[in-house]
Structure to design on (334 residues):
């Protein structure tokens, strides 16, 4: 797939316009969006991703389009997993609901910047060293095992890192969020203080960094085309702010999402490892020759496996949550 410079420029320009609109909406009127507003925006961004995939199909063919859809679905699912941690961060720092949109938007911008940097680095590594797939594959399998060990204990998904702890000790902080800005003036002393919003931003930013380390190897396991990798990530993150408010309490009911994501990441890790074997150039492995018997997993099978795993995990989660709720109601009735 050949992507010209003007296509990259047009894509980046469109992204900047969308982010500017979001910034204007949130900056002009910080508020908690209604279900209707959140649903409309989520539907808009999902529809935009579907139309973009059709455009790729029309201009570049079915295979790149399938790679985009598969990558977008994978990244979107991993982004939903991010929301679990965002919920914990918001609760941990008691962020007022009217300021949560601003926190999420800045978090999304940070995630886009970090993933853009990782995509550029990953593409450069892959173009020079095919053995990177061995590392990516092993890392994804390790991440899958870690997700399985976490189970349903989401509280352990977020722990205050050293940067957050240092910031809380070293910076002059106010006790309230004020008007939602990063700084405020103390009424008694007139001294300029940082608000807890800064600590929340640091928490969101470092969390984005950790999730970027998981998501970028996953998308490169589906496609090596940097343009598809980048746009799949963009469309997965756009609308995430509204999805946070749309899902609401539903996030707590997706108890098996970690298992579904673990299976997906393990599958992509194995896919990467098989591809690394097939294109092997490491001298001490098979004298630097590829293992041509290693099967290549087609993109349509990857798409089916990902949809199947996430679908089963979602349905099973909702069924379990419904049964648990009925048991609680029966127990309360007694």
């Amino acid at each position: 797939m050949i992507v010209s410079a003007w296509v990259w420029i047009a894509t980046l320009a469109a992204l900047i316009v969308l982010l500017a609109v979001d910034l204007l909406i949130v900056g002009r009127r910080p508020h908690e969006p209604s279900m209707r507003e959140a649903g409309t925006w989520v539907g808009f961004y999902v529809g935009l991703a579907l139309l973009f995939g059709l455009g790729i199909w029309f201009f570049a063919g079915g295979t790149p389009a399938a790679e985009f859809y598969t990558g977008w679905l994978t990244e979107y699912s991993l982004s939903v997993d991010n929301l679990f941690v965002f919920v914990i961060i918001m609760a941990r720092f008691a962020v007022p609901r009217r300021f949560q949109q601003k926190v999420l938007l800045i978090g999304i911008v940070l995630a886009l910047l970090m993933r853009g940097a990782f995509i550029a680095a990953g593409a450069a590594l892959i173009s020079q060293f095919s053995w990177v797939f061995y590392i990516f594959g092993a890392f994804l399998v390790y991440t899958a095992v870690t997700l399985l060990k976490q189970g349903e204990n989401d509280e352990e998904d977020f722990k205050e890192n050293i940067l957050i702890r240092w910031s809380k000790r070293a910076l002059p902080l106010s006790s309230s969020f004020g008007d939602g800005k990063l700084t405020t003036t103390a009424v008694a002393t007139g001294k300029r203080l940082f608000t807890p919003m800064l600590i929340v931003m640091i928490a969101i930013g470092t969390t984005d960094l950790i999730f970027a380390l998981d998501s970028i190897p996953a998308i490169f396991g589906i496609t090596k085309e940097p343009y598809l990798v980048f746009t799949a990530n963009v469309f997965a993150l756009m609308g995430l702010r509204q999805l946070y408010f749309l899902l609401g309490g539903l996030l707590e009911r997706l108890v098996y999402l970690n298992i579904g994501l673990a299976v997906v990441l393990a599958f992509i890790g194995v896919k990467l490892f098989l591809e690394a074997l097939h294109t092997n150039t490491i001298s001490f492995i098979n004298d630097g020759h590829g293992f041509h018997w290693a099967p290549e997993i087609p993109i349509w099978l990857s798409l089916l496996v990902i949809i199947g795993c996430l679908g089963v995990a979602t349905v099973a989660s909702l069924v379990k949550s419904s049964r648990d709720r009925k048991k609680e109601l029966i127990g309360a009735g007694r």
User: Anything to note?
Assistant: The longest helix spans residues 299-333. The CA atoms of residues 136 and 192 lie 46 Å apart. The beta strands are 183-185, 192-194. Residues 5-333 form one domain.
